[in-house]
């Protein structure tokens, strides 16, 4: 028993200082020794100076020989042999200063490479260091015990103290304030109400709270992320192995050139000079630094790549296949529209449906309950609830029998029209009925992600020339989504096996990336050169087949990852090519006798430092996206939140338009029209005016110019004009009745406003609100 905090041990400051000392100590000691030799030389003791420099050369030669012998024993052949020959040659020709400079050069390269590796993997190591190892679990007698994390099982009741890391995926039992930045990248604190689910790895930033475990530790979100992080730090990229293969050709070239210089000139010192400027090969320094830097950067953007090889492949990709549900769409249905029987009440239909569905675990039930709560519709406690799989839920609400699900019997005319409308729009239909028949229908949609179209454009700009959507959904629905996001091809009614086959076909033609939800898409992810799982919900963070996991629920982070991967690969190739070219030029000059060993050593030192520093450029740059200032983020959050209210007015507007179209003589027609006009004037127009006054000017910087919002400003003018036009018709109907000759123009205004406003909201969400990184922004590049 006890209340001590679960173990989560970051790297201690003392240990970090020791590691830093071990990293830089050889370089510091060798440098001090070389400078001491210089001081002795100028003090008139050249013999002592040479002795110090010779000792430095021997000190560097011994571990270099040991490393080379180990590599040869493992049948590995690299440029370390050149370093050994250069140090040995310097001793033989008594160029002790050159040998000492080579020793410092080798130590500098190793220290810089280790520094770059640790700097680049800092974020990946942070994941490993923060992994919880213990948890507080409630006991049967009401106490609390600290148990190893492996002992936690689904259903256990845990306690998460202030500052603790949530040990497993679970459901909070009371309100909690969390820092989710490690898992989601969200930099702000997030409040979670009782009953909401949280992922392991997030930090309790408020008071302690109870947690009901949903998964054990091995199956939880953070464990999967940690496994990927460990693999990312342990594996070696194909480009690094390619560097080793280049070394196999470079070493014989170096030895041949050194031998030719010695043979033709008869001066062994020329051969030593050639070996000196060839040590070490920049290819082996620049490539891993750039690749691992790229791994760190994509991790900070919320994309955890398994290894450097996957990152290198991502940088070479030309074809992208995307699943629809959960990838291009939100993967969670939402209520798009409520259609009611003549004379019915939309809110009452939604209230009855959501009240019955409160006890159902079905994803559609959650959408109905969420919609009712967002609109402030009070729900009643249902009784006698039963659920028949595939048909729906039945229960009593306020003593009234309510059925939610499929429609039984022959539908009335209004219901038939509603069903046809849903099929044309690619929406799902949930019917709400009582004992007398259908009361209404709730049309559900799986909305396209607001950032999907912008992401597709950025992926094309990054070099992906072919984008294909594969889905098991209906052809009509798939075609509508494909048209919205702008992909090149769409394949509907595609089973998991067919998806995998299509990925194989595309992979045979070009380097291919597959993005999916990681469950039914697992075979396709395994077939791709790079499989990317949407893992923000925790369902796929531990998918063994994925080469990369999006730990944030934003598709645009994939575009970030592709751009960073291409940039890192370009920097790696550039650094290696420039470094190798400069080294070869210096070798030729040395072979001609124009570059003595000491000067060559200093020159090669400069070349190595140059390529390492250039490779470190991969830690920043390469992203096309503009950063959004904090004030603009706040505005985007504010106006994005107001879109929910505007959509509610839109639903009323569409219902009113339908009423005017079908029953213009109905006594309730003009009152409904006056109500929706009042809401347009009181809610929608002030929202649009505030956007024009505050949001659009703030977006000029991130979008590049004031003209970027001009078309949206024109839409504001059109929206205001149509609202005024509707008001004019109302003013012309003081007796509460619509004149027949005005109905046609009124309908044009109503349906026109509905279309313009829907398009306007969609464009704002795609072009503007998707810029907001607060939906899962990892910390910017540092």
UniProtKB/TrEMBL annotation:
Gene Ontology, cellular component aspect: plasma membrane
SUPFAM superfamilies named among the record's database cross-references: Calcium ATPase, transduction domain A (SSF81653), Calcium ATPase, transmembrane domain M (SSF81665), HAD-like (SSF56784), Metal cation-transporting ATPase, ATP-binding domain N (SSF81660)
Domain named Hemerythrin-like: residues: 637-770
Membrane-crossing residue ranges in chain numbering: 21-44, 50-69, 76-93, 99-116, 246-265, 271-292, 571-592
InterPro entries, alphabetized: ATPase_P-typ_cyto_dom_N, ATPase_P-typ_P_site, ATPase_P-typ_TM_dom_sf, ATPase_P-typ_transduc_dom_A_sf, ATPase_P-type_domA, Cation_Transport_ATPase_IB, HAD-like_sf, HAD_sf
One GO molecular-function entry: cadmium ion transmembrane transporter activity
Main localization of the protein described in the UniProt heading: membrane
Residue ranges annotated for the P-type ATPase A domain, each copy included: 131-228
Subcellular location: Cell membrane
Family according to the record: Belongs to the cation transport ATPase (P-type) (TC 3.A.3) family. Type IB subfamily.
PANTHER family documented for this protein: CADMIUM/ZINC-TRANSPORTING ATPASE HMA2-RELATED, CADMIUM_ZINC-TRANSPORTING ATPASE HMA4-RELATED
Official protein name in the record: Heavy metal-(Cd/Co/Hg/Pb/Zn)-translocating P-type ATPase
Annotated source species: Micromonospora sediminicola
């Amino acid at each position: 028993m006890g209340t001590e905090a679960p173990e989560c041990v970051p790297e201690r400051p003392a240990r970090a200082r020791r590691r830093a000392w071990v990293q830089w100590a050889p370089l510091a000691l060798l440098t001090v020794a070389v400078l001491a030799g210089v001081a002795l030389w100028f003090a008139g003791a050249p013999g002592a100076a040479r002795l110090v420099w010779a000792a430095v050369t021997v000190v560097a030669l011994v571990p270099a020989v040991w490393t080379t012998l180990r590599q040869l024993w493992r049948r590995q052949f690299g440029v370390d042999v050149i370093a050994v020959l250069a140090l040995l040659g310097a001793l033989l020709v008594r160029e002790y200063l050159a040998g000492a400079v080579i020793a410092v050069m080798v130590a500098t390269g190793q220290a810089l490479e280790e520094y770059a590796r640790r700097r680049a993997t800092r974020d990946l190591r942070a994941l490993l260091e923060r992994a919880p190892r213990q948890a507080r679990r409630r006991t049967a007698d009401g106490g609390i015990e600290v148990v190893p994390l492996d002992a936690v099982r689904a259903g256990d009741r845990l306690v998460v103290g202030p500052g603790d890391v949530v040990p497993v995926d679970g459901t909070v039992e009371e309100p909690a304030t969390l820092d989710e930045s490690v898992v989601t990248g969200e930099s702000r604190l997030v409040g979670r109400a009782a009953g909401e689910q949280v992922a392991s790895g997030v930090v309790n930033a408020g008071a302690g709270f109870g947690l009901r475990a949903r998964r054990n530790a091995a199956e939880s979100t953070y464990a999967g992320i940690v496994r990927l992080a460990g693999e990312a730090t342990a594996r070696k990229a194909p480009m690094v192995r390619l560097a080793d293969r280049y070394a196999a050709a470079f070493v014989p070239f170096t030895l041949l050139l050194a031998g030719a210089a010695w043979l033709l000139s008869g001066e062994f010192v020329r051969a030593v000079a050639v070996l000196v400027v060839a040590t070490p090969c920049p290819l082996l320094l620049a490539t891993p630094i750039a690749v691992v830097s790229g791994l760190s950067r994509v991790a900070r953007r919320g994309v955890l790549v398994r290894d450097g090889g996957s990152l290198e492949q991502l940088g070479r990709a030309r074809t992208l296949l995307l699943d629809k549900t959960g990838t291009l769409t939100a993967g969670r249905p939402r209520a798009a529209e409520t259609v009611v029987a003549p004379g019915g009440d939309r809110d009452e239909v939604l209230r009855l449906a959501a009240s019955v569905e409160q006890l159902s675990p079905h994803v559609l039930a959650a959408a109905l309950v969420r919609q009712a709560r967002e609109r402030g519709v009070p729900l009643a406690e249902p009784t006698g609830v039963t659920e028949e799989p595939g048909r729906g839920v039945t229960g009593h609400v306020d003593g009234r029998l309510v059925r939610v699900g499929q429609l039984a019997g022959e539908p009335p005319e209004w219901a038939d029209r509603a069903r046809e409308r849903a099929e044309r729009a690619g929406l799902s239909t949930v019917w709400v009925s009582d004992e007398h028949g259908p009361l209404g229908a709730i049309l559900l949609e799986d909305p396209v992600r607001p950032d999907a179209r912008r992401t597709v454009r950025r992926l094309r700009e990054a070099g992906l020339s072919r984008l294909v959507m594969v889905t098991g959904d209906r052809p009509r629905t798939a075609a509508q989504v494909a048209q919205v996001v702008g992909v090149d091809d769409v394949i509907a009614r595609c089973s998991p096996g067919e998806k995998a086959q299509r990925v194989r076909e595309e992979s045979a033609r070009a380097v291919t990336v597959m993005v999916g939800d990681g469950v039914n898409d697992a075979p396709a992810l395994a077939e791709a050169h790079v499989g990317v799982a949407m893992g923000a919900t925790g369902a796929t963070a531990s998918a063994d087949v994925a080469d990369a996991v999006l730990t944030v629920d934003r598709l645009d982070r994939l575009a970030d990852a592709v751009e960073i991967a291409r940039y890192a690969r370009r920097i790696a190739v550039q650094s290696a090519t420039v470094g190798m070219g400069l080294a070869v030029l210096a070798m030729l000059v040395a072979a001609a006798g124009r570059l003595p060993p000491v000067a060559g050593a200093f020159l090669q030192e400069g070349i190595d430092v140059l390529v390492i520093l250039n490779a470190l450029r991969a830690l920043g740059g390469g992203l096309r996206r503009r950063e959004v200032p904090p004030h603009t983020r706040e505005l985007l959050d504010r106006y994005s939140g107001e879109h929910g209210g505007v959509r509610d007015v839109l639903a009323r507007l569409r219902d009113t338009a339908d009423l005017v179209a079908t029953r213009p003589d109905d006594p309730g027609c003009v009152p409904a029209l006056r109500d929706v006009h009042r809401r347009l004037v009181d809610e929608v127009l002030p929202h649009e005016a505030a956007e024009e006054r505050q949001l659009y000017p703030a977006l000029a910087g991130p979008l590049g110019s004031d003209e970027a919002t001009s078309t949206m400003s024109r839409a504001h003018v059109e929206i205001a004009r149509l609202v005024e036009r509707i008001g004019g018709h109302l003013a012309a109907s003081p007796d509460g009745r619509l004149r027949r000759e005005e109905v046609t123009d009124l309908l044009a205004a109503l349906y026109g406003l509905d279309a313009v406003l829907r398009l306007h909201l969609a464009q704002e969400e795609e072009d503007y609100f998707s810029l907001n990184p607060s939906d899962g922004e990892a910390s910017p590049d540092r």
